[in-house]
Amino acid sequence: MELSLLNYTAERIGIDPTETYMYAGNNTLRVLQEYQFNCSSSNITSLILGINIRRSGRDRKLFPGVRVFRPNGSASKKYSLVTGSERSVYYSTSNVSTDTGGYEYPLNPPIPVMSGDLLAVSQPELANSVVRIYFTSTEGIRFISSQNISIGSSSTVNFNDSVDDQLILVYPVTDGYCVNSTNSINTSFIKEKALEAQISQRIPVERQFLFPEVNFKCNGSVLKWVFGGKRINQEPPEHIELQVWRKIGNNYTKIGFSLVNANTMIGTNLYEFIPQTPLQFQEGDIFGIYQGNRSRFLYDQKYNGPENLRSIGTLNSPPQTISTGELKDSGNDFPLVTVEISNMPTTSARPPSVPPSPSHSLPNNKVLITILPLTVLLILAGVLTAALLITITVYCIKKKKKGKTNSRSFPNNDSLSIFRTSINFGTSNPLYDNPDGVYEPTMPVPYPQIPLPPIPNEDPDVVVEAYKQPNEGVYEAGLATTAVYPTVSDHN
Question: What sections of the protein cross the membrane (predicted)?
Answer without folding.
Answer: 367-397
